[in-house]
Amino acid sequence: MDASVFRLNHGSDVYVVRSCCNEDGADLLALGGEHSVEVYQITSTALKRLATFHVGNRITALAWSPRSVSPSRSDEWVFEIAAASVDFGLHLLTKTSSSSEHIFAFGGGLSGHHGKVNDICFCGGRNEDNVRYVATVSDDKMLMVWDLNPTLDIPSGVPSPVRSGEDDSLSPNPRLQPTAYAIAFPHALTTVNSHPSSSKEFLVSDCQGTVFLTDWRTDPEQTEQGSWRHSVVVELIEPRAFSDSLTAVASQWSGFAAWRRDNADIVGVSCGPRFSIWNLSKLRGGKPLHTGTSFPEGGHSFRWCSTNPDYFAISAHSNMRGAVIHVHNVGYVQAQPSVINVAPRPHWIRDFDFMALCGQPLLAVAFGHQVAVFPLGDE
Q: Which of 60, 58, 54, 67 is nearest to 28 (CA)?
């Protein structure tokens, strides 16, 4: 991979950018737009579009399945992505070397969320469960873990779209609707993460910047409040963020938590103008290992670099500075960050992610109709 800078004019707003972290899919990038999800391959010379899934509603969250494989790694390639849309619906998007785009809809109506789905991820671990279970979090204060291959048929009234691939309801062996295990939390939930080292836990953050390490396989207590307390292994609260969350000024800010993939003990969080990093093996009464300031007007997404885990990046929450990203080195966390000015005002960054390609760290950034892919150090 050379140091080229790629810019894509998507033609409509891009809301979600998600790279594939699988070793066999590291050059794959998914973009969620107004009506569809597109899959691109990052080559040495271009962004190559490989698939388009016409969902029909604005995309709010994406997650790559661990079974996804790039055409650059195998002739029997597979794209599989879980997507959430603005109508609270969920969709499993699949395309393989031997089949065209297919959309399987689930999770809408009375069986699923009744608020915006803010994040989605597949289960962690390295066994077959990591492609079977998908977790979603929403403004409705619910963490829901979906079994994509249930043994019971529980109708939900959600038809699979017939516009992309064949209709499951007409096939000889129709796919059963996924079942969900739900855990209620006190506040709206903003992010959910899994880790390659564990299939039992999800890292969940809420709009006040509180982070919960949740054992979703633990049987809950009978009371509604106990259902989430019983499942929480660790609860992380940054004192300043908690204080700010009680003021009217901080009501515009949301917490964004990210799990470092090479170390299950390291958690990074962006909340308002501050970021915090915890080491779960050295909690020291819950005090963060590091804290710092990102953007005075409020930071947004927090991402760890896939290929160099000492790096993490935070995007600005508003367009006051334009489309700007701060890149930090955890070894020099109090030093001034590297400032990447992607585009001037009135642009702002809707989403970004690090690519998992080996070599110089690559950022994929969405701002307005544009998507840019570039290495750190090249703006």
A: 67
